[in-house]
Design a protein that fits this description.
Radius of gyration: 32 Å
Structural class: alpha+beta
Order of helices and strands: HHEEHEEHHEEHHEEEEEEEEEHHHHH
Number of strands: 15
Helix content: 40-55%
Strand content: 15-25%
């Protein structure tokens, strides 16, 4: 039975999809309310209230409501939704029943403008699950039998305000195993990327995204959604962590996709960063998220399969907006139904991902690696000069080892410089080319860091000179320990050499400083 199959699929999904389903239905009705003049832009509201103590969820919108004369007809005919494909965010009607999987009772109530009563439908979710169990055991239940068993249309309730218009969904006695649906932060994190809401005000590139959409004649649907009175926004920012340290978005790049008839089928944006490495898994922004009517399709990895490498999507932060009305979300809204439009969409997206984006993150990774080698040499050379000036080497062997390490780093740096020049020649010299912009950004940052580093080095050098004048610097590091007798200094020098030979330089330095502090 189709209806039972749908419920079984719902039970296997992330329970939070109920919020997406109800928000989708509410936003469709808000669109109608705007067209009919019931709501002006900005007056709409989808209000979600979680009550962990009472184990209830209440979702209310101020859209059209359902007239009392049509209330039973609309809610009873679940599979016969009058939503038009391509003109509404949903069209099956079955989505409104998804809450039945997660509570004891599901209650729908509604009031249309100008009416004096509220219409109410109570659905017995526990009974529905009993019938599904029977169906699984071979006792077949028809869709109509199922609905007759679980539906109860109550007597209308007198409304407080005649001119109000709204629709409300209540999940009563949420299942204890689904308490995560009542977890404010858990739900908020989900809605912040799934719901059709505005970008966070602190996301400095939000205006660029809006402007691009306007330039290509597209509207980014967004609605005022509140969770326990707190506004929900798309939680995009500019900074994130990768497996090789922090990275930052310094610009955004756009791409529009047209079919053979020059009709826009999708458009996208992604954040231009250094592409140092894969973004850490705990970063909520990670991935190129697929959206239709600004509602997320699937999870953050819905488009991962269109990259040659699974890791490809995890280098990026951004969104792909499906535009074509023939790109139709499936019943689980985890992807699109298979048709010619989906095939064309995948061909365009796959080509873009595997040509331009794959080349970009590989170039970015190689460029960063090359500059890291140059920076490593510069750091080692500076540290060597400073240590030699300050008399920080344990003995001549220690100094020779450090000199060899500097020479090795120098060769690596020279090769890295050559690799960068080759990369520059290979990349199109168009300044708008993303890879060129990454190189320019890194070079600007290095100049700034060098300038700041010179100031710090100058200050440190002056301090070291002052310290050396006070301590009468000698050839060996231990000679600065004037409180230690000469024969004991030789012993300390041997101990210091053993420490350096037994562990890494950073650890050795920490141990030796601790010993020096004891003798000062």
């Amino acid at each position: 039975m189709y209806l039972v199959q749908i419920f079984l699929k719902i039970l296997r999904q992330d329970s939070r999809v109920i919020y997406r389903e109800y928000i989708q239905s509410a936003s469709d009705q808000i669109d109608i309310a705007r067209r009919e003049g019931l709501l002006a832009e900005g007056q709409e509201l989808i209000d979600i209230q979680l009550d962990d103590k009472k184990r209830t969820i209440t979702i209310t919108d101020n859209a059209t409501g359902i007239p009392a004369s049509k209330f039973k007809e609309v809610l009873a005919n679940i599979a016969d939704s009058n939503k038009q494909i391509g003109e509404a965010k949903g069209f099956r009607g079955i989505g409104r029943l998804c809450g039945l999987a997660y509570c004891r009772e599901l209650v729908f109530s509604s009031k249309a403008p100008g009416e004096s009563h509220v219409s109410v439908l109570r659905c017995y979710a526990a009974r529905m699950r009993e019938l599904i169990d029977k169906n699984n055991q071979g006792e077949k239940v028809s869709a109509q039998e199922l609905l007759n068993e679980i539906y109860e249309f109550l007597e209308p309730i007198k409304a407080e305000h005649k001119n109000e218009h709204w629709f409300r969904v209540e999940l009563i006695d949420v299942n204890r195993e689904n308490r995560d649906l009542l977890d404010f932060q858990y739900v908020k994190d989900y809605l912040s990327f799934v719901a059709p809401v505005p970008y966070k005000n602190t996301f400095i590139f939000r205006q660029k995204v809006y402007e691009h959409a306007e330039q290509i004649g597209e509207r980014i649907d967004q609605y005022k959604i509140r969770l326990n009175s707190e506004p929900i926004v798309k939680n995009y920012g500019t900074k994130f962590k990768t497996s090789k340290g922090e990275d930052e978005i310094f610009d955004v790049v756009f791409k529009d996709f047209y079919d053979d008839s020059n009709q826009l089928i999708a458009w996208s944006w992604f954040g231009l960063s250094h592409f140092k490495a894969v973004i850490q898994k705990d970063c909520q922004m990670r991935g190129l998220r697929l959206r239709k009517e600004n509602i997320q399709i699937g999870d953050d990895d819905a488009l991962k399969k269109l990259f040659k490498e699974d890791r490809g999507s995890h280098y990026f932060v951004g969104e792909v907006f499906a535009v074509s009305k023939f790109l139709i979300p499936n019943s689980q809204r985890d992807y699109f139904n298979e048709n010619d439009s989906r095939i064309a969409f995948e061909q365009h997206i796959r080509r873009y991902f595997n040509d331009e984006l794959t080349r970009l993150y590989r170039d970015g990774s190689e460029i960063n690696s090359a500059y890291d080698k140059i920076s490593a040499y510069e750091k080692k050379a500076t540290e060597f000069q400073q240590k030699q000036k300050n008399g920080d080497f344990i003995d001549e062997d220690h100094r020779q080892q450090a000199a060899q390490a500097v020479e090795k780093a120098k060769k690596n740096a020279e090769k890295a410089k050559s690799d960068i020049e080759k990369k520059k020649q290979k990349i199109d010299q168009d300044s708008s080319n993303p890879a060129n912009r990454i190189i320019s950004r890194i070079e600007e940052e290095r100049k700034r860091q060098k300038s700041e580093g010179k100031k710090i080095a100058k200050s440190q050098s002056k301090k070291a000179d002052d310290d050396n004048q006070k301590t009468d610097k000698a050839g060996r590091r231990v000679d600065r320990l004037t409180s230690v007798q000469k024969r004991d200094r030789k012993l300390l020098s041997k101990i210091f050499s053993i420490i350096y030979a037994s562990t890494d330089e950073e650890t050795a330095e920490k141990i030796i400083i601790k010993i020096e502090d004891e003798f000062k």
